[in-house]
């Protein structure tokens, strides 16, 4: 039935494409300071007669695509500068590229209202339930990428501690690896924990794209519950930026980012590096933090500081190649190197503290990439990426000491190892990654796309403390994955109706070799499995009015098991489960967007999404009976439904206020077991999963109050998470174990000096020192003070 509906819709929109596209052109350029010749960010650029416009980005560049040919009046304004006006004449398929100089003005200008669509608005109106997060406005704050994501409607960030701790994401009730993380379109898990969303400073990131549920083919992977695509800065000008942040719990973060381009031959160099360090010695307390009296044996709750949770990471990324040359828009040979050291304070829960367990991880990822628009013929765009990621992880847990939460040695394990057995193991991983994306535009209204990613992952390892018969050095684990997608995008009814129809193929093969030991010999034990699944869907949006858009997206999605889910990860207290099956989910989103509506100096945007997820064999992380290890298991049937919303308010481009909230009702929906018996978990809310949360963010520009040509801003963030059960709500009767309601406030201020070179900020996180929990009641940091300085060298 669904296939027939999709086929009918496809035929309908294919028929509509017979309407020829109107002749259009593009307007692009850069706005610079007439005195310093530096690019000016956040200028308003408007084609006055069309009421079409946008803003300049961080380096002063702008682009207004698909403008009707003919004569127009271009107006550029910026507070503190004299306005610029020019009459332009556009020809068919032409590109008008211009440099505009603005002069400083001492005259107070009336506010100019730009009515047009930003890049964020265009993305949000494409039919996918999506959101674009621009990092430019918060780059000078002491803020992490996870904090920005946690302030977005429908997203819940599950971080198990301070800087560098393990992090999982939940979007509309689906969590863990159902939500995939990408960096510049490449799945981020292949870069390893040392080069991840936890470690990358916000200064190195241009923006983040969030997709809820239905994910476009262009990302080319098996994301089931949604996706987050991180876009790194790729400035093509000469630049060098530095930032340093320091704060509570001995936290230090350093970032350096620069680029150089030779205008004559297009040779381009881009480089970035970071260094992070934190003791994470914040205070914890509660019923999981207990100490036994050595004399009486009485166990009591205590307040203690984490003492084995240190984190250190550093990394660098270098791109060498050419940009904007005749044969390539972008060609790079790149190298990513990163390394990290992480102490492990406890297992899957906080019941038993560890005093010496730790691990290291490093990765080396060479790659080559190529991008070209209008290759061979107009409308044919190609993007290619190939890489081989090499990761090495070493886990050390050999001590015989037992520790309590005061950091005192209180006993001895004769065999060694804080989790019951000694281990000093090294795991080596290698992944070949090939990704392609090819699109062909018949015209402005019709685009075909084919994309895919093929990965070949192999893991080997050995344990230096293994006893006879327990050696694993001859074992290996291998996963081959292939995800191929096709899509057709159509714009019709004078741009009001946008539709994307797509199909995907998901294939994987697991090939593992283990050894058993008997009779004084090792005997091979091979394990093999393979599967192929198909997905399909549609994403469509329609502008009922200029300000009101309706969005509908639906798909059957598939997610293949990840290496750590199948094979475990000892460094992160994970054990293997080779019996995992792929997840299959039917996703449906219905969204409404209204805005941006102007009422004098006031501007308002409202967006909301109703969602439904029907998941078979959902993969969720669980805890073993002792609470030391995680493992992953399939749940036969899970249904998640709910709503998320976001309200954005802007007063006179000075006061910015955002309110976002989400509610999801995610329940175990398997009524009978395989034996035909009533499943006692039927209709239980999903364990260890928040279901109601709100976020507010307020930012106020105080520049005019201090009569400065710099920029002073203050901000306040609030996060509310309603209490939820740590385990299944149907298990137990009285005094069920729950994670309490959390209400966390952050405040701060930043000042950018004139000339936009130097900026400083002060942030206070968790102002009221609330007790904040996450997965299985693991406590997060309390109140912290952070200072950051950013400097643009050139």
Number of strands: 45
Counting helices, strands and paired strands, the structural category is: mainly beta
Specify the CATH class of the largest domain: Mainly Beta
CATH superfamily of the largest domain: TonB-dependent receptor, beta-barrel domain
In DSSP terms, counting alpha (H) and pi (I) runs of 4 or more, how many helices? 5
- In terms of DSSP E residues, the strand content is over 45%
Shape: globular
Which segments are poorly predicted (pLDDT under 50) over 5 or more consecutive residues? 1-22, 106-116
Largest sheet: 22 strands, antiparallel, barrel
Average the pLDDT over all residues and give the rounded result: 84
Distance between the termini: 60 Å
